[in-house]
Specification:
This protein is mainly α and 127 residues long. 80% of the residues lie in helices and 0% in strands. Helix 1 packs antiparallel against helix 3. The radius of gyration is 18 Å and the shape is elongated.
Length: 127
């Protein structure tokens, strides 16, 4: 792999992350305002779970498309694809954990002695 490939990959990651950040600020910002006005709990949980994850997804998409555009040997392409898949699965697990944690907190907040946190993963993800 040549140095120019690293430059293209880094540029794609930064560019994709920037697009994801803009989507996070603009689209999710509007969805947050809409979710605050609605009576539904589902939209609050979903929008809260997606906060901050769109830049990561944008960067992963940018890197993936950049790697696909190069004619890389299998010794580089396969581990790269596996790493991106692992990061993607991890990010979806983070979103699912945030959703489950928020759902548990919302549903138990009215109970006497309601939970302060839903799981250790929720505590780790907030840090």
């Amino acid at each position: 792999m040549q140095f120019a490939h690293f430059i293209w990959i880094a540029s794609a990651a930064v560019g994709g992350g920037g697009v994801g950040w803009l989507l996070d600020r603009i689209v999710l910002g509007r969805l947050r305002r809409f979710a605050r006005r609605s009576q539904s709990l589902v939209d609050d949980v979903l929008v809260g779970a997606l906060k901050g994850i769109l830049p990561l997804w944008g960067a992963l998409i940018g890197v993936r498309f950049t790697l696909r555009s190069f004619d890389l040997p299998a010794s580089v392409a396969d581990p790269s694809a596996r790493l991106l898949l692992g990061l993607t699965v991890f990010s979806f697990c983070v979103v699912a954990t945030r959703m489950a944690s928020a759902w548990i907190q919302h549903t138990t907040s009215g109970l006497v002695g309601g939970t302060k946190t839903a799981s250790i993963m929720g505590i780790v993800m907030r840090a």
